[in-house]
Amino acid sequence: MSLYPIVLFLHVSGAIGYFVGIGAWLFILVGLRRAQRVEQVRALIKLIALSGPFTGISVLLILATGFYMALTVWSLQTGWIAVALISLVLMAPSGTALIEPRRRAIDRLAQEVPDGPLPQSLERRTHDPILGTALQTVAALLLGIVFLMTTKPTLAGSLIVMAAALALGLASGLLVSRAMRTRGQDVAEPIG
């Protein structure tokens, strides 16, 4: 038996793990935005902290196995591989720069405030539009990479796919943020 099927299995497993991590974040974000009490936010944010190492290991697994396959079977100069690799490498800092600091800020604030109804400062943090947009964009980019892996388009096609995934992720994040903000204003404004 050749090593390639095992490496491919690990590569796909890493992609599934990354999707599970981002999916968990997205579902927990919905819960955070619906939370009414500080205790709910604390419980939900702890789940994210637990999934962080799993997501990180999944990304490393994707990169290690992807490099192996690119170097032994394909080529790093293959258009879709280069675009997928660069996209994945560029996505990693978004978690470090945009997502993780916001998770830590929510966690820190939830630990500082007493049990009870959600204070406005914590509610603002859980409804951070950048957090939601970053998560939705990462999910869309992951789908774009999976599309590249399964269809193996040309370099130009790969660039178009990833540009479309980026646009879709940003647009969906902005639309959800706008809808959340509008819904919040509707509830806050008295009916005339």
Task: Characterise this structure.
This protein is mainly α. It contains six helices and no strands. The protein has helices at 4-34, 38-72, 79-112, 120-126, 129-151, 155-188. The longest helix is centred in the N-terminal third of the chain and has 35 residues, at 38-72. The termini are far apart. Residues 185-192 have low confidence and may be disordered.
How is the topology of this model organized?
Elements: H1 4-34, H2 38-72, H3 79-112, H4 120-126, H5 129-151, H6 155-188
Which of globular, elongated, flat, extended, rod-shaped describes the shape? elongated
Helix content: over 70%
Give the percentage of residues in beta strands.
Answer: under 5%
Write the H/E string, N to C: HHHHHH
List keywords for this structure.
single chain, 192 residues, mainly alpha, 0% strand, elongated
Brief rundown of the structure:
The chain has 192 residues and is mostly helical. The protein contains 6 helices and no strands. The longest helix has 35 residues, at 38-72.
